[in-house]
Amino acid sequence: MTDSYDIIVVGAGHNGLVCSALLAKAGKKVLVLEANDQVGGAAVTREFADGYSVSACAHLLYQLQPGVCKDLGLKPKLATSNMQTIALSEDGRHVRYSGASVAGVSDSDTRSYQAFHKRMARYADLLNTYLNKAPPRLGTTDFRDLSTLARLGFDIRRLGKEEMREFLRLIGMNIHDELDERFESPLLKGALSLDAVLGTHLGPRSPNTIMTYLYRLAGDHGRLAVPKGGMGSVSDGLASVARAAGVTIRTGMPVARIIVENGRVGGVETTAGERFESLTVVSNADPKRTILDLVGARHVETGFTRRIDHIRMRGNAAKLHLALTGLPRIDGLSKKDFAERLVIAPDEHYVERAFNPAKYGECSPEPVVELTFPSFRDESLAPTGQHVMSAVLQYAPYQLAGGWNDDARNAFLDSAIAVIARYMPDIESRIVASELLTPADIEREFHITGGHWHHGELSLDQFLFVRPVCGSAQYRMPLDGLYLCGAGTHPGGGVSGAAGRNAARTILRRERAA
Amino acid sequence: MTIQEVHQGRLRTPFYSRLAALDTVNTWHEWKGYTSTDELYCAETEYFAIRNATAVFDLTPMTKYRIAGSDALPYIDRLVTRDMTKVRPGRVAYAVWCDDQGQVIDDGTIFHLRDGEYRLCSQERHFAWLNAAAIGFDVTITEETAEVAALAVQGPTSFSILSRMGLAGLAELKPFDLMHVDFEGVELMVSRTGFTGDLGYELWIAPEKAETLWDKLFAAGEVTGIRAIGTHALEVARIEAGYIAVYEEFLPADETVRTGRTRSPLELGLNWLVDFKKANFNGRRALAEEMRRGSTWRLVRLDIAGNKAAHHSYVYANEKGNKTEIGFITSAVWSPVCKQNIALGTVKMPHGKVGDNVWVEIYYQREMHWSRVMAKATVVGEPFWFPSRRGATPPGPY
Prior knowledge:
- The complex is a heterodimer of chains A (about 525) and B (about 400).
- Chain A is of the alpha/beta class and about 525 residues long.
- Chain A has two domains: about 1-45 and about 230-310 and about 450-514, FAD/NAD(P)-binding domain (3-Layer(bba) Sandwich), CATH 3.50.50; about 45-65 and about 75-230 and about 315-395 and about 400-435, Polyamine Oxidase, Chain A, domain 2 (Alpha-Beta Complex), CATH 3.90.660.
- Chain A contains 16 helices and 21 strands.
- Chain A has an eight-stranded mixed β-sheet, with helices on both faces. Chain A has a five-stranded parallel β-sheet with strand order 11-3-2-15-21, covered by helices on one side.
- In chain A, a hairpin with a 2-residue loop joins β4 and β5.
- In chain A, α1 (about 15-25) packs parallel to α16, α3 crosses α8 and α7 packs across α8.
- Chain A is globular, with a radius of gyration of 22 Å.
- Chain B has helices spanning about 15-20, 45-50, 70-80, 125-135, 160-165, 210-220, 230-240, 285-295, and strands at about 25-30, 35-40, 55-60, 65-70, 90-100, 105-115, 115-120, 140-145, 150-155, 180-185, 185-190, 200-205, 225-230, 295-305, 315, 325-335, 340-350, 355-365, 370-380.
- The radius of gyration of chain B is 22 Å and the shape is globular.
- The interface of A and B includes residues 262, 263 and 309 of A.
């Protein structure tokens, strides 16, 4: 059986859904094929133990672009918004920060933090403007590209002489040096370091971790929220909008290959052998998976293949889900603080030390942890009176020396629980069930090469004009009819929808021009 | 840990002992790590061996890669611009390969040794590029330059000499055919290929049998004027044949820094090698765009007035008046066999159509003082030297 569509989107991740909805709104007949049984890709809510559900991969919403919500009329229901970050201290003297305010540090640190945040927020705003545009090409005569480039230069210059110099100094720098110069509190430095390196294969002393920090801030100055019903509700919302716009979404249909005929895209074929015809295929899958697995290197050229093959995308963050009989005891926290984001990164050296073994394919013996109790404000996620904990653990390298076998998983789980137990002494007695998703699991379950959330390391050499690779940063791949719309393209990962929206606009603009 | 001994200085090919024994002038140069002879007695004498008898040239340093595996054909077909599905086992194909921008990385010959097994020979090393091109293909690429000793046996009497050596099947070997024969218990590969534009063969054998092969070859060739030659003589023959050479007519695209200094196959007169009927090959998109938009450069063969070789000369559209510089000479020589002052050059489009007249500014030195002539030149379509015996099967005895 063959079916014909204007556009086929491979993968119903949030970017795929955003892209398909916008294309359908523009009058296209769009089909979305999703490998998993639920839509959302890595933005899903899953039951991991009987009665306990959690956002299976992405768990905090902080980058969803207002433009995406506006274009699609989307209003995510939030269980918690404007969350504080609480950097846990074993002695109960925690540090809290949210936006420009900070508590639990010296007066001098407070002033420094306010100045730091003000500056970072300003740079993040600058960055944010460009997250919602296709990155301009260099060395082109295209008017749109030239004007975007000129605008970028102008915007940087408009920061003022001092600030421009500061921006250009900081953008390639590591976060550690900057934090070390400004702050005294090890706890604050540790937590901000964690913000900069979360989800990456970078330590606080790695270059361009200020850029990753800015990227995190770019959404909404880093304001954090948890959607009601978990991250899956955002995806379900997007899917409803897409369906209402006329998109056909079919789940449980893994695409085996993107069909290439006569040097151009002709449709897709599922693993079950079903074929769907279309002259335009948009892949929400990561660039490596799309080009090397779905299309096949033989249909594209060598230089391009080599660049795609060289994309650095080895995940280093694991996800831990705990089903708990009740909330654990944490010294120095009030009950309502369980709605906030808690981090375990007692100092900046702790974060770097956690990263060190990961360079050599070993897990952190003392991982860095970001955790939330999403059930605290959302009773739908756990049986009454009981709770779930959703934690990101770093570092757990994708390419673990010796592989991710049961022993390795158990050892990493034990070390993570041991670290958490320092702050929550009764945690072990409260665990009903647990789920650990290593990057290898994330790769398998969410079909992301290397299990890297961002579909490719966020670094200056894989950012903006050169994301996913140089020469192909404008969503269109060097194969007629093929586009990318996922986190592997500009601007990158996080539940933002920017990549999906930029891709849809590029496709529509191109069709108008043709 | 043991540190492996690494050879210091230039390598010697398996034929070195024989070349050194014949050498009288001791002029050697480096060729891809090997010591290679410029000339052994006199470049002119050696040149006339190519054109009037048989010349033997040691081409062992030529870079050789073995390409095998179930995807060998689709791999090579995507690598090069020409249609490799038409190149059957037992055939050799001249080919160029390009980067994604459609700029030539190198040219070379691809030997389809056996079904699904190929040897790629080129001037430059390309292991990194070949491996990058192998991503997603089931192929193995093995550098085998040192494992294969190779001789070019070129000239009108080459068929007679090799026949006298008793190589069965030689008479049926057409241009760009290859065959495997037994040579004293080891496999000898014979291909009817060469770099001289004349009748000629290339012999490929394991290094252990290299000297024996040389000795037998020279014994068989004694009465028919066989001579070992160096690169100087070969270079003259190469230009007469109109063949392009890397670092002369083009630069490897992957080693060229400045934009606009590389060349596409279309700019090198190799349109016949670019098969747009293939759905994909490296450079296809860029070359299709070049076809649409027009090329920047054109390779020309020039027949130049006078007898002063036009090395590195500028080429002009007119002698006087609007003296627009349109290009430059890349290879030039006085051709003894054609009695012509010939050159290869590169000119800007739309100049350089066959039959066009251009002007070449030749500087030459006589007893310290420099002089200059503006020599009229004609763009010619055919190679300067293309004897009918080159294509004849069986080739006649000489």
